[in-house]
């Protein structure tokens, strides 16, 4: 049965490459599972979307009878019983997956939303004061320093490449894109290592193709 991954029908340039359907696509590519993409309107949000996802966010998947939202839950569901979530390291991998989404991503998104408030105030504004932003950056850097220390010389967080690495690297990509990972060279190398994987490249290519098709569809609608 084909699994359906829901993402938005169209988004402006700035979040492309970072919308969280990417991490699900990456997981699907890693485990070799085919999928189709369906869309929900980004604006205005629909009642159908709220039935799928109570906060009207993406990603959501539908796999037979199983509907699931929250990217972490989706990744665990997909990777259970695969080499990305082997039974013997399950607890450790869950631990790092929660650390990615509940500790690191929290700090990263707090800081990134402040950067975006300056860049696209119509979505995220008003921009915070410089000292509020500096405080958020310091908090994020504390988390990144600790993460780098925990990673040490290891290639991946918990044994072989796992679902925790997908979550963590997808969170760190945002920091790397803002050139704020330079002070954490081991983490920068970790991101580079993970995003060199063919599965990531396929996922990213398909993610970007989706937005290109969305642009074409929008252009067609406004022309006709
Ligand atoms: N914790 C959720 C966060 C989902 C999330 O924030 N999705 C963004 C796209 S990356 C979204 O739908 N934003 C629109 C909104 O919040 O209204 C997850 O990991 O699935």
UniProtKB/TrEMBL annotation:
It comes from the Bacteria. SUPFAM superfamilies: GST C-terminal domain-like (SSF47616), Thioredoxin-like (SSF52833). The keyword Transferase applies. Keywords: Transferase. It holds the Pfam family GST_N. CDD domains: GST_C_8, GST_N_GTT1_like. Residues 86-222 form the GST C-terminal domain. The keyword Transferase applies. This is Glutathione S-transferase GstA. One of its GO terms (molecular function) is glutathione transferase activity. The lineage of its organism: Bacteria, Pseudomonadati, Pseudomonadota, Alphaproteobacteria, Hyphomicrobiales. Residues 1-86 form the GST N-terminal domain. InterPro entries: Glutathione-S-Trfase_C-like (IPR010987), Glutathione-S-Trfase_C_sf (IPR036282), Glutathione_S-Trfase (IPR040079), Glutathione_S-Trfase_N (IPR004045), GST_C (IPR004046), Thioredoxin-like_sf (IPR036249). Its EC number is 2.5.1.18. Belongs to the GST superfamily. It comes from Roseibium aggregatum.
């Amino acid at each position: 049965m084909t699994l359906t991954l829901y993402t938005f029908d169209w988004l402006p340039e700035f979040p492309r490459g970072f919308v969280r359907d990417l991490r699900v696509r990456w997981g699907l590519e890693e485990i070799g599972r085919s999928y189709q993409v369906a869309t929900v309107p980004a604006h205005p949000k629909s009642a159908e979307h709220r039935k799928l996802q109570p906060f009207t966010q993406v990603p959501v998947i539908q796999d037979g009878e199983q509907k699931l939202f929250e990217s972490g839950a989706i990744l665990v569901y997909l990777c259970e019983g695969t080499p990305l979530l082997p039974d013997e390291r399950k607890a450790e991998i869950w631990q790092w997956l929660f650390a990615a989404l509940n500790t690191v991503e929290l700090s990263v998104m707090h800081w990134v939303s402040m950067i975006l408030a300056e860049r696209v105030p119509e979505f995220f504004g008003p921009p915070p004061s410089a000292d509020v932003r500096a405080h958020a950056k310091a908090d994020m850097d504390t988390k990144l320093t600790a993460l780098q220390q925990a990673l040490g010389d290891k290639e991946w967080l918990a044994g072989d490449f796992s679902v925790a690495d997908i979550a963590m690297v997808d969170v760190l990509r945002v920091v790397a894109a803002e050139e704020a990972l330079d002070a954490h060279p081991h983490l920068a190398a970790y991101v580079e290592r993970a995003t060199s994987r063919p599965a990531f490249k396929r996922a990213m290519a398909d993610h970007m193709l989706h937005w290109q098709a969305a642009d074409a569809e929008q252009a067609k609608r406004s022309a006709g």
